[in-house]
Amino acid sequence: MSIIFKRRIYHLDKVHIKMVYLFVVPFIIQMLPFNHRGFLMSISYGLLFLILFFNRDLMGFKLMAIGSVMNALVILLNNGKMPAYEPFAKILNLNLTIKHVFVQVFNMKLLLGDWIPIILPWGRKFLISPGDIFIYIGVFVFFLTITEKRSPTVKLSRITDQ
Q1: Any residues with CB less than 8 A from the CB of 145 and at least 6 apart, and which?
Q2: What are the DSSP calls for 59-85, one per residue?
Q3: Is 101 within a domain?
Q4: Is the residue at 26 inside a domain?
Q5: Which tens digit of pLDDT belongs to each residue from 122-149?
Q6: Rounded CA separation 8/147 (Å)
Q7: What domain count does the chain have?
Q8: Is the pLDDT of residue 2 over 70?
Q9: Stretch (H or E) spanning 147
């Protein structure tokens, strides 16, 4: 990605992300192995929305928030589990996880769920949701807009050296 866009994406230390220390908590909550996930997912997405809201001025975070809202909506409508389109999951040889529920018929309830098949060149297969696409684009935009900020003294010295 850096070569294609001729940018370094490794300047995360130059970006002030508010509440960055809490970013991992919603994802840990989502991985907890509880069958009744509705309440846990509400806490997880509530915390994630709070973090995204406080960082809404950073490029890409609004797209991440839109995708997260889409995912949260479909998960909360399905008792804390992401619906996955079973026919595509079977074609890709994917198993059901504790975070998912299979849906056999494509309907409005699945529209925001995991139904978009992805097969990576190295063989990894999975289903993603429309919300995931917004999240991935938001992350991509965020990393592409991170630049190394030079201090004013560095800029001034370069001007005077010429």
Answers
A1: 59, 60
A2: TTHHHHHHHHHHHHHHHHHTTT-EEEE
A3: no
A4: yes
A5: 999 999 999 999 999 999 998 888 766 5
A6: 7
A7: 1
A8: no
A9: none
Residue-range definition of the domain harbouring residue 16: 2-81+130-161
* 148: Cα within 13 Å, side-chain hemisphere: 7
How far apart are the C-alpha atoms of 48 and 116, rounded to whole Å? 23
119 domain residue, yes or no: no
Tokens coding 92? 């890709």
Written as six digits, the tokens of 31 are: 């991985």
Alpha carbon distance, N-terminus to C-terminus of the chain: 33
- In angstroms, rounded to a whole number, what is the distance separating the alpha carbons of residues 122 and 155? 44
64 in a domain, yes or no?
Answer: yes
pLDDT band at 158, cuts 50/70/90?
Answer: very low
CA–CA distances in Å: residue 47 to residues 24, 34, 42, 102, 109: 10, 19, 9, 27, 24
Amino acid at 134: F
Measured between alpha carbons, how far is 125 from 112 in angstroms, rounded to an integer? 19
Of 128, 120, 124, the C-alpha closest to 84 is 128
The predicted pLDDT at position 28 comes to 92
| Amino acid occupying residue 91 | I
pLDDT band at 9 (very low <50, low <70, confident <90, very high): low
CA-closest candidate to residue 82, choices 92, 93, 68: 68
